[in-house]
Amino acid sequence: MQILTPLALALTFASPALAWEHTVEWRFNGAEIKSFKATDPEYDEDPALLEVTLSDPHSGDTVVTIEADNDIAPCAELLGYAQGNPFETVVLTANLNAQTLNGVTLAQCSTR
Fold first, then answer.
1. What is the pTM of this model?
2. Tally of domains in the chain
3. What is the annotated signal peptide range for this record (predicted)?
4. Are 48 and 58 within 8 A, CB to CB?
5. What is the pLDDT of residues 24-65, one digit of tens each?
6. Parallel, antiparallel, or unpaired for β 48-56 and 89-95?
7. What is the bridge-based pairing of β-strands 89-95 and 105-111?
8. Which residues, at least 6 apart from 44, have a Cβ–Cβ distance to it below 8 Å?
9. Residue 36 is part of which domain span?
């Protein structure tokens, strides 16, 4: 019983550490946005898809594709507003261990 109590306490206090959120963030300015496309899911259970093509004169084009379980229309509007504007910074944040079918989803789409 004496060994069991500290072990139970250790597991109780360690469990929040196991629920950490792992995110990846992409930052780019509006002048780098070559194109973007937001695709609604064909079926209700499928995620929406955001595809952003970034253009850089030195390294060429880069395509960032992120699935989203939430409404993606506001993010598409934000990208349309920022596209071509070198003074607008867009931040896309993806949650890599989300509680979704594939484990990755768009967590945030914002400007700074």
1. 0.76
2. 1
3. 1-19
4. no
5. 999 999 999 999 999 988 887 788 899 999 998 898 999 998
6. unpaired
7. antiparallel
8. none
9. 29-111
